[in-house]
Amino acid sequence: MYLTYNYPSQLRVITTSIVKRSWKATTRFFSSIGASIVKGQQKRADFWIINNMSDKQLKDIGVTRGEIKQRFYETNS
Q1: What is the separation of C-alpha 28 from the centre of its chain, rounded to a whole number of angstroms?
Q2: What tens digit of pLDDT does each residue of 7-63 get?
Q3: Residue 34 to residues 11, 24, 29, 43, 65: CA-CA distances in angstroms?
Q4: Torsion sign across C-alpha atoms 27, 32, 33, 34
Q5: Rounded CA gap, 47 and 51, in Å?
Q6: So what's the pLDDT on residue 3?
Q7: Distance between alpha carbon 1 and the CA centroid of its chain, in Å?
Q8: What's the DSSP call for residue 66?
Q9: Distance CA 23, CA 29 (A)
Q10: What is the pLDDT of residue 12?
Q11: By the 8 A CB rule, do 35 and 10 touch?
Q12: Other Cβ atoms within 10 Å of 54 Cβ, number
């Protein structure tokens, strides 16, 4: 009894598997970039809103004008 191999079929299965894994990895990569962009844009919008509040509104939420940048970006400046 002889074993026969179907190389074209095996190559197709391997190639398909590699392409699917590569596509999933690429999709995850670009999704994470998109999520980072959305997060950054939201943070900038929130910063703008708080920065443009009146002193009275800031006092109501317990933040001084000098603390806004420090609290948003967690800097010591």
Answers
A1: 10
A2: 788 788 889 999 999 999 999 999 999 999 999 999 999 999 999 999 999 999 998
A3: 34, 15, 9, 14, 31
A4: positive
A5: 6
A6: 62
A7: 57
A8: G
A9: 10
A10: 86
A11: no
A12: 8
Tokens standing for residue 64: 């001084």
From first CA to last CA, the distance across the chain in angstroms is: 80
Write down the H helix ranges in the chain: 7-51, 55-61, 68-73
Please name the residue that has the structure tokens 């190389």: 7
Q: Where are the domains of the chain?
A: 9-73
Cα 29 to Cα 35: distance, rounded to the nearest angstrom: 10
- Distance between CA atoms of residues 58 and 56, nearest Å: 5
